[in-house]
Amino acid sequence: MLRNLLEDLMDVSLDGTEKFVIGVDYGTLSGRAVVVRVRDGKELGSGVCDYAHAVVTGELPEDTAGVAGIRLPGEWALQVPDDYREVLRQAVPAAIADSGIDPAAVVGIATDFTACTMLPVKADGTPLSELPDFADRPHAYVKLWRHHAAQPQADRINALAAERGESWLPRYGGLVSSEWEFAKGLQLLEEDPEGYAAMDRWVEAADWIVWQLCGNYVRNACTAGYKGIYQDGRYPSEDFLAALNPQFKNFVSAKLEHTIGRLGDAAGRLTAEAAAWTGLPEGIAVAVGNVDAHVTAPAARAVEPGQLVAIMGTSTCHVLNGDELREVPGMCGVVDGGIVDGLWGYEAGQSGVGDIFGWFTKYCVPPEYHQAAAAAGLGIHEYLTELASNQAIGQHGLIALDWHSGNRSVLVDHELSGIIVGQTLATKPEDTYRALLEATAFGTRTIVDAFRDSGVPVTEFIVAGGLLKNKLLMQIYADITGLQLSTIGSTQGPALGSAIHAAVAAGKYPDIRVAAAAMGAAPGAVYTPIPENVAAYEELFREYRTLHDYFGRGTNEVMHRLKAIQRNAVRPLFTAGVSA
Description:
Blueprint: H1 2-10, E1 20-26, E2 30-37, E3 43-50, E4 78-79, H2 82-99, E5 106-113, E6 118-121, E7 142-143, H3 151-164, H4 181-191, H5 193-198, E8 201-204, H6 205-214, E9 219-220, H7 221-226, H8 238-244, H9 251-256, E10 260-261, E11 266-269, H10 272-278, E12 285-287, H11 292-299, E13 307-312, E14 316-322, E15 333-336, E16 344-350, H12 354-363, H13 367-375, H14 380-389, E17 399-401, E18 419-421, H15 429-453, E19 460-464, H16 471-481, E20 485-488, H17 493-505, H18 512-519, E21 523-527, H19 531-552, H20 558-569, E22 574-575, E23 578-579
Parallel strand pairs: 1-5, 5-12, 9-10, 13-19, 19-20
Antiparallel strand pairs: 1-2, 2-3, 4-7, 6-8, 11-12, 13-14, 14-16, 15-16, 17-18, 20-21, 22-23
């Protein structure tokens, strides 16, 4: 018994055999797997699988006969569920091969996902899009987090909840997002009632992939709380749902409600089929699902109050633990134990960050810049960053609003759009590029201020994700927030965080905090605010807030009017899954 106890505590047997876990991070465009040593969190190998269908925005995938799928309106963002299974078939075996470990030494696997990403499935977990009768129906596919076509439904949910004084609304900063479970589910009901009727379960992708791995459907506490309006042990009432739409009354009981698993617990054991996909031993622990941002906090060893973690990629999600429950205007949610047990987990975010930079370089930078970057041996982002680094703060004369994909926090309005003020005939691409970098930092500053003003301390700022390698961007964030910024010492923060949860699910650590202390990544680079830069940016931030409130708080509704004009100008291309 003592021998077994020592092995469990040290995660290494007395004959020297190490134990390992797998973390799989499902992003917007690809899935990444990493092999992690249980004893100390060392990352030993990784594998990546790009989604074959990426993000479906123009038209549905062509059918088996090669016929193009129907076209989609502009605010749609779908994915193909088998792309997620392919990550298990490709990225996990690749990570094992890269690490050189014996797969038999792997004791657990955990996954994280972008959220809120939803799909309709049958009772056995089969996605509707994989049924012949529904393959040509847009609502049968995965609705990615950045699917914003349910904004009208979100508006109705918010208006009704405010009118009725629903107790759960303040937990979400007073507004529910169009990205979340209820708005997307209501859109499905109202635009494709046949698909809604055929659906047995409305499932977060975070839970569906765990279902694929272990054969058990368990809703994770994180997405249930932050995206599923699950507070104090219950969802919105049937009376509330019926007031939205009589056919929506039984949405929770018939389509959504299910066993909720605690973060770090095992949802089940790896099935024979999933073992064949991954090359892992059948029967190892499969952890309850989670969200990419929230699993990153343990990876960054940021599990104490006041430590704000920003996961910066195509979008940014901000997560923060607090000792007390506070109402923060425009936050994405606050959930008891939403990140770690015993603390209130707060979430906020920005819908577009890296996506904005990518859009700009793809559509707004002339060919000669791309040619110059190639000649210098640089990527276009590196080249523009180098040019922008030579500027003094404010030299470009611009202020931008970072709303190209709407505003997640603190306005919670995906009808808003991007804007750049101050352009002249002398404005160059590097000017606009820097202004967009700064705009995203101003957006984060707005979130930090909202937390602090509501009594939620923010004492540290830690960055994870793909954008941390841009040193100019990191310094801009430090200067604009006035916080010392440290980066996580891992390029695979979410995958490492998932691996930490896998170790807990496998029984190798008693809880997430203990596992994070042993397996979390050491800090990477540190950026200290430069006093003169802080002062210079304070002046620009005041201008940003003026524009923020003018366009975002009802002073001028031009962005909403333009969205309405755009929507009305596009002829509906499908109704209930039938092309026009």
